[in-house]
Amino acid sequence: MALPKAQELVSSNPVVVFSKTYCPYCVSVKQLLQQLGATFKVYELDTESDGSQIQAALGEWTGLKTVPNVFIGGKHIGGCDSNDLNPLFIVLFCRCYLLFAAFLNWLFISPGLSFNYGAVYCLQKPPA
Questions:
Q1: What is the pLDDT of residues 18-30, one digit of tens each?
Q2: What is the CATH number of the domain that holds 21?
């Protein structure tokens, strides 16, 4: 039951951070995403009744048993274990994703049409 819930959270949100409120690494990742202006979903494992089950399911799914556990565009980016999640990698990944999406928009979509691609959505600032 926990794995399908985690997979649903990941598939229905452009950026997901599985976190714990007291974890300094989680705080750093969330601050970085906020500074980038990203719209992201945070699932605080220590405040949810099924948090330990979700964390165990994430461990089986991704091989990462610690937090933060970050997904961007449905892809597992990692956490803060050694060599996993580098903040620079997140920035570069998001920027490259945006550039590629903008290029595809320019290449394939006529100027009069709207093209809603996930990277632009995930990096939009939330409405005031």
A1: 999 999 888 888 8
A2: 3.40.30.10
